[in-house]
Specification:
The structure holds 2 protein chains of 2 kinds. By secondary structure, chain A is α+β, with helices and mostly antiparallel strands. Chain A has helices at residues 31-45, 118-129, and strands at 5-12, 18-25, 52-61, 80-88, 93-98, 131-133, 136-138, 148-158. Chain B is built from 2 helices and 8 strands; from the N terminus they run E-E-H-E-E-E-H-E-E-E. Classes of the chains: A alpha+beta, B alpha+beta.
């Protein structure tokens, strides 16, 4: 059984605080149809709330059953990250942090990732050149859709994963 | 300009700590192409990481321009004030519910915490949840997370909860 997709609405109150709610929907429609639905329901929600709808999105789940070698190792730690900064065709910078980086991918005596490492190189190539899909290539970009075309740096970093009391 | 589509990947480590990363990709592809791309990146990330990729999703921003929605919140709006709508589904024992933040106090029955389902706006919303919304080429009818179609409203009441 597929996991339903979800349309999420974010609402903002007069003090600027935001909260969300989601409506589950079946998985068999097109993006254009989901957009129609999302807009229609937004028009139904607006009259029954006192806040304003500040954002709306469609989230679809992805089947990962085909992944191989996806078990965590005994030394894995999500707070140890690989920080990749990329440059786009417009010259903007965009950052991707990959959690639980393998220490063996870090060049000895530095905090630089070894870009000759086969898995580091594969990730950089996919970020710069995209991944092939049926009928095209999906190539990463920044939030404004400016295409990523080069790597500025790739280095080890550390980032808290959450609050600890 | 539309915002880029977001691919999100969740990770867990041996200590059961969780984290995630996002990769942005352009608009203009089909849902199945985005799923393919997310699966490809998930494998690349799995190879790169010592953690386990536990979840992947694709999020699209939906454009609400031109609908004439409220542009400012009312002075009475509070995200902690919500309406909980609970529905039965076609699968016996399975329910679907959601809590709508900043629910309007004027839609609550005076002297109670019940949402006024005779109010024309509330009734329209409930009908859409129960019967779906007509879109080009079909009807999209809300469901629970297992895709069991929503059947009927069980209750709708005002509640107060944290933000999300």
């Amino acid at each position: 059984m597929a996991i339903a997709y979800q349309i999420t609405y974010e609402l903002e109150d007069d003090s600027g605080e935001r909260a969300t709610f989601g409506i589950n929907i079946p998985t068999t429609f097109s993006l254009a149809q989901y957009t129609e639905f999302g807009r229609a329901v937004a028009s139904l929600v607006d009259p029954i709330v006192s806040g304003r709808i500040s954002n709306c999105g469609l989230t679809i789940s992805v089947d990962l059953s085909g992944l191989t070698s996806n078990a965590f190792t005994s030394t894995s730690d999500v707070e140890e990250v690989a920080a990749f900064q990329f440059s786009t065709v417009d010259g903007t910078k965009t950052l991707v942090n990959v959690p639980a980086i393998d220490e063996l991918a870090v060049a000895s005596g530095t905090d630089d990732l070894d870009q000759a490492d086969v898995f580091v190189a594969a990730f950089i190539t996919a970020m710069e050149s995209g991944v092939a899909v049926t009928g095209g290539t999906v190539s990463p970009c920044d939030v404004a859709e400016s295409d990523i075309n080069s790597t500025v740096y790739a280095r080890e970093n550390f980032r808290a994963s959450g609050k600890r009391r | 300009m539309p915002l880029a589509v977001s691919l999100r990947f969740d990770f867990v480590d041996v200590k059961n700590k969780k984290s995630f990363t996002k990769i942005r990709v352009p608009n203009g592809f089909t849902l199945s192409q985005y799923v393919e791309a997310a699966q490809a990146f998930a494998q690349i990330l799995t190879n790169l990481s010592n953690g386990s990729v536990t979840n992947a999703s694709v999020t699209f921003g939906l454009d609400l321009a031109g609908l004439g929605l409220s542009t400012v919140a009312s002075g009475l709006a509070d995200v902690y004030q919500k309406a909980r709508f609970q529905f039965s589904t076609v699968a016996s024992g399975f329910r679907a519910f959601f809590r709508i933040p900043t629910f309007s106090e004027t839609k609550v029955v005076y002297g109670s915490d019940a949402i006024d389902d005779s109010d024309i706006d509330v009734a329209a919303f409930i009908t859409a949840m129960e019967n779906g919304v007509v879109v080009t080429g079909g009807t999209i009818s809300p469901c629970d997370m297992r895709e069991n179609d929503i059947a009927a409203l069980q209750f709708a009441r005002e509640i107060h909860r944290k933000k999300s």
